[in-house]
């Protein structure tokens, strides 16, 4: 039954996504905030399909740590789910993503038009400098920035080294960093066709204020995210 419900969701999700991309084609000429608003309609529909077909919902912890001013969110990355949910939940956030995603027909074009921050992961110092400049421009627009410190999706209970991008942003931008833990991978795994019913927990942790030295900041960030994510990994399906 779980597999059948996931199959129905996948079919309807693909159909809904294709329809929205076609209908919204003219918006490629529209301002970024209009593209984002259309994206929120697509995401809202996708999350409703996920709840209706699969029985997968969400629980938020620590919403009191969501500041009103633009900040940098450092998010544990386990699934495509958090890219959808946080795009819908936050105020027109700019995700830091690999530039190859912008080459995907239609989807990548909308990402670019919506004002995401694309980076060349082979660019090293020049890429970091551009990323910081782009993030500063996003903050000037009153929008938050989201980065996945590990740089890729990681299975629940696992971790990868935190990349230097988050340290560069923290040091150069002088804004608080809100760590975010979650357990989405228990229900919607990396590249997984099967989605499982239940409740994903996403937890906004206490912000890390600006001004710490690099080593202290990275240790504090990783400790907070990994400790909370490990705790959340014990909730939900294990198979």
Automatic annotation (TrEMBL):
UniProt cross-references to Pfam families, sorted A to Z: Acyltransferase (PF01553)
A single MF term (Gene Ontology): 1-acylglycerol-3-phosphate O-acyltransferase activity
Organism domain of life: Bacteria
Domain Phospholipid/glycerol acyltransferase: residue ranges: 71-185
Any GO BP annotation: phosphatidic acid biosynthetic process
Pathway: Lipid metabolism
Keyword Ion transport belongs to the record: no
InterPro entries: Plipid/glycerol_acylTrfase
SMART domains xref list: PlsC (SM00563)
Keyword terms of this UniProt record: Acyltransferase, Transferase
Protein name, per record: 1-acyl-sn-glycerol-3-phosphate acyltransferase
Native source organism of the sequence: Dongia mobilis
Lineage: Bacteria, Pseudomonadati, Pseudomonadota, Alphaproteobacteria, Rhodospirillales
